[in-house]
User: Fold these one by one.
Assistant:
Number 1:
Amino acid sequence: MIAVSLPDPVPLSGPAYKRDPYPLYARMREAGPVHRVLFPSGVTAWLVTGYAAAQRTLADPRLGKNHALGNDRWRARASIMPEPQHSRLQVHLLHQDAPRHTVMRRLITDAFAPRRVEALRPRLQELADALVDALPAGGEPVDLVEHFAARFPFRALAEVIGLPPHLAGRFRREWGKVVAPVGPDDPGRPAYEALLRGLEEYIAEVVADRRGGGDGLLARLVAAHDTGELTRAELDSMIFQLLVAGQEPVTNQITTALVALFRHPEALERLRAEPRLMPSAVEELLRYDSAFELTTWRFLAEDAELHGTRVPAGDSVIVSLCAANRDPERFPDPDTLDLDRDRGSHLAFGHGVHYCPGAALARAELRIALGTLLTRLPGLRLAAPDAGLPWIPAVLGRGTSALPVRHDGCPYARPSSPGEGR
């Protein structure tokens, strides 16, 4: 390995950054496509910002996802999930390369195929309506994260993957926090490890239950393990990924979309009046402020040039999907929320072989969630100052941990049939 002189990293942290990272991303894009950055945990990475560079990076065959490619500098800071959970839960699709990634991905794609998602749309609408029916009454502020955004995606996911009600009802949302591990010396480490053990025990219960029969993706994954197609670590890791990555980003995307609409009341009122715009509006909201702010780690097996920057082998490379989606070279007037913008060209779900397999489900959930909330809650608006919204301190994602709202009176009755775009 050759010696490399590394530039000082740009910090990606702090409340101001989490609330609005786009000015910093704009400065980075103007300076060049690749920048060395520093995360709060002390992990450094090479961040790719522009749209064209991001798209090429996501499809670059030199970059692998397997954590075994990471060097000692990266591993000392980032690979800190304890054993045995690290070995058992960290070999899912996001950490795999071909040919193993190809085999594992093939097992789940059919469950999330657009035709299957479309067939489930009436049931997903029922789930959304039931949550609106149950919203607290009385005109007091309602936290849409607690009462809707954190519940609807999980209930939808349970339907898709075949998680039975007796297990779905026992899933704890705080288990999702294990994707952001704390260091061995952090005071919160014991609580983190307890969450991790609880989630691992829950996954074991899911496997035992689905081995007993039943339909759905979870039962098929257990069967694939029993026939030797998956190792036990791969099975547990894929269930881990489904339960955590399969719902939390949609929860966060509901919040970023609603915040964007609250900040653009004319767009909110237009979308309420013209529900046929919902499919294109969702694409624009995904582009405008994606819950997948940054991708997960990628690594070069040897020192190489990446868009004109020399990157050492084993250093982590991350793509800023949010920065790419606000690139003026790809999107005219990118900081404007434009419901009439051409759809389908953003990178909110990634690109290449690691393109999000649940994209069709996420789109359907967002269309139903936003359509239901705007249609059934008259006068929906923020109930707290925008500047005080609690943005989650996650390294890779964007969203608010609470979203207090008000609306005018009781929810409108459910429509007799879903409207267009719902």
Number 2:
Amino acid sequence: MLCLVCKPTSLLHCDYPAKRKSMFRLLPCSSIKILLIMLSVNIFWLVRVYPPAHNTNAGQSVPQLKAEAMPGCPQNLEVVNKPLPLPKYSFEGALPVKNNNTISLTFDNIDLRYGRWDSQQMYKIKDFAVVGDQYAESSEASLICLATQSSVERLYSLPQVAENWRGPLSVALFSAGNEEYIVLRYFVTYLRLCFPNVKANATFHILVPREFDNLPTVQMDTVNIKNKYNCQYPERTLKALLKFRTAKTLEWRQKNTYPQNHMRNVARKGCQSKYVFLTDVDIIPSINSVVQLNHFFKTARCEGSCAYVIPTFEIDVRATFPRTKDTLIALIKKGLARPFHEKVFIYNQYATNFTRWLLSKRNETAVSVSHTVTNFEFLYEPFYIAIDKVPVHDERFTGYGFTRNSQVYEMYVAGYKFLVLSPVFTCHWGLQRKQARPAWREQQNNANRKKFDVFKSEIFARYKNDPHL
């Protein structure tokens, strides 16, 4: 007995237009049975080896989420190459809803018509828009508060910051308009649901431009979303939400520089602890640093005015975040880590003297002063811990260039000493390349360079000191 067989053009697909006669051939039925069995076995192993396309967690030991879809998330989320090295949290339940079945989002009761103006009435500030559930208790228990700031695009880094920094966090957020404000409401809700230390210890402040009400509003609540959101992928979740911004909002962002120094001042003043550790949101502190630093500052003594520098390194995205100074040194020896901005702008961190820090004693557990910065360079901008009586960040400097280093320069002229601590450190993901820098960064840097001449003359007059750097 013979059977008519269709020769498939691809796995699981059989195309048999009449004109393609060559695809058909006669085979014994026993052979057909063998072919079908082999095909079934192949399909079975394909399913076992390759996970279904819709399951983004397959192959990982990540708990399956039971939460409902996060309203406002598009259905086709982008896949990132590597998730953030976060603890495997999973939110068991749906987003909170009110009696009228609407989503209860973060900042739900905030009225941005009321707030304090900055000194030039360019931005309105809403302090303590959302307070961490244990922020007051954390601030009383800890001598150090981490203050950080972020635009909406970079907020995905906060979960890892919060995971490593188990203490109070004061976070200043910038919203260019109503669209970005809605994105922030959804994403901060997501962060507070997924990451316990964000919910417990992170307090958020909001800064909006004067033109806030004139920028468009997107109706995200009307989007029909069915996918579940994943606590393991904050960057992917945020990228999905950012797609709802319209061209008008993005155009405004391109024309108006990000007010970095405004944001730093807001974050600093939100801290309630004695010492402030001021960072950028993508600067990740070393593990267990809160406990180590609190122990150090209980007995720290400083003659005059001191700032305590925390060395910062770049980490290759292929590496695992170093748990100790020794594992960081091992990454450096493998070429997977190096001092921050070493290749793109060496003067940014050069005065820290990384060589001396790396050669200090091994297997340290207690924080101590490794050395004092003796070769201060103009444009030096370390991340440091200090009592919040240091000079404010001058708000004339916006965008990139001369924002942090102008403030550090004033500290130097005012007589501050910079003491480098060990074994604590901070990291930034990615080995930086100068070629990857967009042209607009240099344009903003040049604009701020012109402002610096006026700033410098004011500093010399204020402190009656000209260090001739």
Number 3:
Amino acid sequence: MTTEHPSHLAEALRSRRWLLSAWPWRALAYLVTTVPIAGILSVGLLVIGAPLLAAVNGLRLHGRPPSIALLLFLAMGSLTLLALAPIVSFPVAAVERWRVGLVDGRPLASSPWPGLVARYRSAATWREVAYLFWLGGFAPVAYWVFLVLVLLDLGMISSPLLAGDANQPVVIWRPIDSTGEAIPYAIVGVLLIPALWYAAGLLAALQAAVVRWVLARPVDAAALREVARSRTRLVGAYEAERRRIERDLHDGAQPRLTSLTLQLGLARLDVPEDSPAARPLAVAHDQARGLMAMLRQLVHGIRPQSLTDLGLAGAVRELADAATVPVDVSADLRDELPEIVETTAYFVVSEALGNVARHAQATRAAVRLTRAGGDLVVEVTDDGRGGADPARGTGLTGLADRVAAVDGRLLLSSPPGGPTVVRVELPCRR
């Protein structure tokens, strides 16, 4: 399935409107502008390639070894070619990165000149050199083959006009004596024009793909690993801070608030109901109880006590018992899980079951906890109406963000009419 406005040639080729769009002309412009660049590079390669091929044929066919002068020429020429290639490849690569925009709208970052010494030591440089040899070696051959096909097609189309010529034109392999014999070839030639347009697009798309593959700035794997480690450290530090806040609330603020609520309740018993202080005291007592309930919810939201006491499977069964619809729980967890993974999985189930109760109109739900390789897999399914869409609310989006924070992924299947399946995969690296 293609988009209405393809961003690159390979995508546009799958469109039914390919021949009616501007993409064939863009592909043709890309191929035509390749010819002078590839031609100059191929001449440079032939300076070394032609004598080398002659020497190899002489040795293979006649058993005649190459002369000392030819060997010296080939050695010096090859060394000179390799020495100049990193310098020549820099402007060529810059032009190619710019020129590929004719058939590919996705940006391709350019590399600044790193210095002469660094140029020879960079792996990206030798990727550009490899592209230089590909452009000067393979591209001309492919272009010649395509040109031959185009000329053959033009010969077939023009064969009725040449059939009366005294030179008796030959179409493909058969001589043409009359216009009647040439007309079928002309018809086939006209029918082949769309195929040639597609072939031109494929050739341009292939070259553009090679440009993106070879000339794209390589990903710094070491930097990515460091980013992943840094992200893990941040998530771990964040989780540790959450646990500290939980302990402070549970062991510090919560007992004091409980004591305050108790003292206010005792004071209400000692104050007559018709006293002027009775009503303000009752309001203060109710507010203290409300604050107590709010504090319990905050502590529960940081890390539920049931998760600490019962483990993930037990805490999920407790959530299922409290759900408004019947929930079947299946847990196959033999190994101990990292704390951050347990917490994330718990809130995934909690949010998913909350969505079932609020939106799904389901009569039944199921939760499955399994280990697959090094991942914890959490699946929550329901038989509700389906049609869940992250764009319509923040619940699923927040859930996906929570899962992504621990390097996991969330998959959602919710066709209209149901069923809805929420699958979360959490890596269990320690």
